[in-house]
Automatic annotation (TrEMBL):
<feature type="domain" description="HDOD">
    <location>
        <begin position="22"/>
        <end position="215"/>
    </location>
</feature>
<dbReference type="InterPro" id="IPR013976">
    <property type="entry name" value="HDOD"/>
</dbReference>
<dbReference type="InterPro" id="IPR052340">
    <property type="entry name" value="RNase_Y/CdgJ"/>
</dbReference>
<protein>
    <submittedName>
        <fullName>Signal transduction superfamily protein with modified HD-GYP domain</fullName>
    </submittedName>
</protein>
<dbReference type="Pfam" id="PF08668">
    <property type="entry name" value="HDOD"/>
</dbReference>
Length: 279
């Protein structure tokens, strides 16, 4: 049996018997999410939790002082940063930043694939949030949250992480990137939902992970639709005809206004601001 066939067989068996090892949420993300769910938690207490992870603390400062937050006055302390971001957003923002810790391997070939996967997730997040912010500028009734959108986009394909982790045991597979991608396309949606359920993520995250590959717009735009726009821009859909039809639907719904939506100055500028947060 080839390494490729072996990987498919093993994945199918482990999925059927619920024995696939799922990635676990970083400890700091768990602590932040637990404290954020406490209705009595204060901004100072949340800052103390984040301060336990110097890397996350630095990233939170960067977020608070970013062009994306739209403030000209710089914050100088973690308490100020947490106050500016706000308790309502801190849970998803901190989780989004911490998730990068999962995309690491000691094996060079595996790390190359994980690094590519994480960079693609960042592109998807930046495009999705930029399109959402642009849409909300003309549709103020849209109540979708940019921090939820960011996290939703970063984990929309989290099942691919489990596939690549399993593939570490079959090094020959990494010599066939197209095959590995086909395995990810087949298995990742189901695995993504299992991971997000295990992490306790809300239904909206699970729905996006399960259905973003379907070329069909929702009647009212939700988080999945903005991930689909990013998928169009990144060329993820195999059928050019279906992709064109989907984009035509979004233009008719005024989710975007032109086929080359990423060339619009407002969206392009937002994209750059959001992408820069993860550099």
């Amino acid at each position: 049996m080839s390494a490729q066939q072996a990987l498919l067989t093993i994945l199918d068996d482990k999925i059927r018997h619920d024995r696939l090892v799922l990635p676990t949420l970083p400890e700091i993300a768990l602590r932040v999410r637990q404290r954020a769910d406490d209705p009595k938690v204060s901004l100072a207490q949340m800052a103390d939790v984040i301060a336990q992870d110097p890397a996350l603390s630095a990233r939170m400062m960067k977020i608070a002082n970013s062009a994306f937050m739209g403030r000209s006055i710089k914050v100088n302390t973690l308490n100020q940063a947490v106050t500016r971001i706000g308790l309502s957003q801190i849970k998803n923002v901190a989780t989004a930043l911490a998730i990068e810790q999962l995309f690491v391997s000691e094996y060079k070939q595996v790390q190359q694939h994980l690094g590519k996967l994480w960079r693609e997730n960042i592109h998807v997040a930046a495009i999705a949030v930029a399109c959402l912010k642009s849409y909300q500028a003309t549709q103020p009734a849209c109540v979708l949250s940019s921090d939820v959108m960011t996290l939703c986009a970063l984990v929309h394909n989290i099942g691919a992480l489990a596939v690549i982790t399993e593939a570490e045991r079959h090094p020959d597979v990494f010599g066939h990137p197209l095959f590995l991608q086909s395995v990810i396309d087949k298995a990742a949606p189901y695995i993504s939902v299992k991971v997000l359920k295990a992490w306790g993520f809300a239904e909206e995250f699970q729905l996006a992970a399960k259905s973003w590959r379907v070329c069909r717009a929702n009647s009212v735009p939700d988080y999945t639709d903005f991930i689909r726009l990013a998928a169009i821009e990144r060329g993820y859909y195999k059928s050019a005809e279906e992709q064109h039809q989907l984009l035509t639907q979004y233009i008719a719904m005024q989710v975007v206004t032109v086929p080359e939506f990423m060339q619009q100055p407002n969206i392009a500028s937002l994209y750059q601001d959001i992408h820069a947060l993860f550099q």
